[in-house]
Amino acid sequence: MIYLDHAATSWPKPPAVIRAMADFCERAGGNPGRSGHRLSLAAARIVYDARESLAELFGVSDPLRIIFTANATHAINLALRGLLHAGDRVVTTGMEHNAVMRPLRALQDRGVQLSIIPCASDGSLDLAQAAGAIAPGTRLVVINHASNVAGTILPADQIARLAHQAGALLLLDAAQTAGVVPIDVAAMGIDLLAFTGHKGLQGPPGTGGLIIHSTVDTRLIEPLVRGGTGSHSEFQTQPESCPDKFESGTPNGVGIAGLGAGARWVLDRGVQTIREHEIALTRALMEGLSAIPHVTVYGAADATQRTATVSFTVRNRTVSEIGLRLDDKYDVLCRVGLHCAPAAHRTLGTFPEGTVRFAAGAQTTWDNIQAAVAAVRELAHS
Amino acid sequence: MNDNGVVLFHTTSSAMRAEKTLLRHGLTIKMIPVPRQFSSDCGIALRFDWSRKDAVHEFLTAARVEIAGLHPLD
Q1: CATH fold of A15-269, please?
Q2: Interchain pair B43, A241: CB under 8 A
Q3: Is A36 in Cβ contact with B33 (below 8 Å)?
Q4: Quick check: B42 and A231 CB within 8 A?
Q5: Each residue's pLDDT tens digit, B5-42
Q6: Nearest of A93, A167, A166 to residue A126 by alpha carbon
Q7: Positions of CATH 3.40.640.10 in chain A
């Protein structure tokens, strides 16, 4: 079986991730931060260690500013709905996922002003156009680090500079890049970073987080959910301390144990090493697909400017037909359609038909890519 | 005989951070439920040998661990 759906979720998970989750259940099954006994403490230590690993991975000096969430969508909602009020101005791009667009459209209905920077048909962003859109007085700029459809990477550090010049904060949606593209929150000027745990970070579904950099006053962010935190228990009001303010309710300890082990797996391997592996695979994938008559490949042509997510279409074939035959006949697992990103597909000119998406990962091999390209070649000719 | 002290915290995460920091410095400590005589933000406290109070304070400050208080235990 050839698994090319890493942009949806990575598979298989490293054995260390599975072991960490089993260990959590067997040896540390207490509720982290709720009790003082040894099983509760063991669980709290594992959750804290995961914060430290993620802080190391993303260049964050204070691990307590890593807020665990259920996924990147939850983290993005926390940032957008926690920060923006009627009358605020927010800027985004024409390449966003619905995890960004749907909360923004709902906020727009409540009086938030939304401005969208159009992107080129390869998903890239014109910085001069971005500079024009990010006007002084903008409260927040929210962009994807890389498109989940075309793989095109946006220049987050340069957008951060433009945002800061205008007095705005930058929220980076790193769902597609965390663990596979180097990210340094401090060096890149990222104010808020939303990540998912189950893609490049190799953790299980149901994990993710929002990193609130020290550039952001956490008092200005309203929590999405309020409730028990194991702290300030004598008060019926939500505590202000991080991460508790934003982490009410029992956390997903098992998942976080797996996420921590996944982050450690990435750190041991090195993000740069993973990145170089994926660039080589992407180059081979794009060259192979582009050489097939009637196949159109989307997104940035330069493999160093994109992730290992490659979208394509085959003339006179529906994407659903290609996806089904790849699975049934060739054992190639991928994702077809609109990928929850209608805005991005409009920009690429592939709305409403969608694309076939091959997304390689850290564990994808050279042979996987060759076999997948050969399968598309055969399908396109048959 | 050793008299003990406790460090109180605002969050469990801070408590975990403190535990790691002090263990790294080789101090003998134990995480315990917050003794009833103290009102604390967090349910877990860190018990230590009170004679090492200055070292505990210094190590936690250097590691930028936020604490809610440092008290002798009767």
Answers
A1: Aspartate Aminotransferase; domain 2 (3.40.640)
A2: no
A3: yes
A4: yes
A5: 999 999 999 999 999 999 999 999 999 999 888 876 67
A6: A93
A7: 15-269
Task: Find residue B5's DSSP bridge partners.
Answer: B48, B72
pLDDT tens-digit readout, A276-294: 999 999 999 999 999 999 9
Residues of chain A with CATH 3.90.1150.10: 2-10+270-381
Say if residue A88 is exposed, middle or buried (CB neighbours under 10 Å; 0-12, 13-18, 19+): middle
CB contact at 8 A, A143 and A173: yes
CA pseudo-torsion sign A315, A319, A325, A331: positive
- CATH fold label, B4-72: Alpha-Beta Plaits (3.30.70)
- Model-level pTM? 0.96
Span B53-66, pLDDT tens digits: 999 999 999 999 99
Of 3.30.70.260, 3.40.50.2300, 3.40.50.300, 3.90.1150.10, the CATH number of A2-10+270-381 is: 3.90.1150.10
> What part of B 14-73 touches A (C-beta under 8 Å)?
14-17, 19-20, 31-34, 39, 41-44, 64, 66
CA distance A379 to A64: 51
pLDDT bin (cut points 50, 70, 90) of residue B1 is: very low
Domain ranges of chain B: 4-72
> Number of Cβ pairs closer than 8 Å across A and B?
71
Q: Which residues of A are catalytic?
A: 340
Contact list in B for residue A65 (CB cut-off 8 A) is none
Nearest to B12 among A33, A62, A63 (CB): A33
